[in-house]
Amino acid sequence: MKLHKLKFVLPNLFTVTSIFCGFYGLTLCAGEASPSQLYQAALAIFFAMFFDGFDGRVARLTRTQSQFGVELDSLADVVSFGVVPAMLVYKWALSSLGLVGLLVSFLFTACGALRLARFNVLAHSTDHSGSSRFFVGLPIPLAAGMIVSMVIAHHGMRGGDPLGTGARVPIAIVVAVLSLLMVSTLRYRTFKDVRLNRKTLSIFMLVCLSGVLVATRIHPSYVLVVYFGAYLLLGFVESGLLLGRHLSERREAGEPAPAEGVLEDEDEVDEQDFL
């Protein structure tokens, strides 16, 4: 195979590897999965996130971006971050809730698919330049990451013990909230506009320090829960600040306030930098 052809294969190889990790996680969840197998499935999804995070970057680095790669990436995300996490959380926590647990798990998959479909429509109809700063709605890998972090935290604290019955309903609520956040119009920062300076380094050190404190004072397995949870809350904070700024600007200009959930052009996003 010639080198220039191999360049086009390389980004898709990362995407296919992400699909494999998701498929492997799905096989671990099948049947009467043990707590150890569910933990391994969570790790498989985590590795899928790792490979998914590099396919777009490799494509841009090698200048081999293509519509085929975009579509393949979306299909991979539905499998690895939509279907598999839903199956994982169903087996881990929601199966005992009967039909409610089944519907909540399916809601996660459905909202993930809807979110990716919305992105594809926006990508085809709008010019999303590199200046965009926000995701619209919670990215599906991060929603999956929250589920994965809860499974890893439970395994780190309880080992092979099954999940307590009192935790199942709260987890169902968390999964439902994650599902709705994916199809919401909340803004989640892409951090594309972050520049390396003293302020950025200070914030980075603060984030690392918070992780160390959680690891030493609570348990190392809770670090991911804290990080993913903080990002979820950041979306509410960012959206509130943006709404307040837009209302203030329109009030000063004497214009009517925008309808809730309507995006300004400058806030539209290019999610291929993440997905």
Keywords:
275 residues; Four Helix Bundle (Hemerythrin (Met), subunit A); globular; disordered C terminus
Characterization of the model:
Helix content is 71%, strand content 2%. It is mainly alpha-helical. It has one domain (3-273): Up-down Bundle (Four Helix Bundle (Hemerythrin (Met), subunit A)). A two-stranded antiparallel ribbon has the order 1-2.
How is the secondary structure organized here?
Elements: H1 3-29, H2 35-61, H3 67-94, H4 99-125, E1 134-136, H5 140-158, H6 168-182, E2 187-189, H7 198-217, H8 223-253
Antiparallel strand pairs: 1-2
Helix pairs in contact: 1-2, 1-3, 2-3, 2-5, 3-4, 3-5, 4-6, 5-6, 5-8, 7-8
Question: Could you provide a short overview of the structure?
Answer:
The protein is mainly alpha-helical and 275 residues long. It is built from eight helices and two strands, in the order ααααβααβαα.
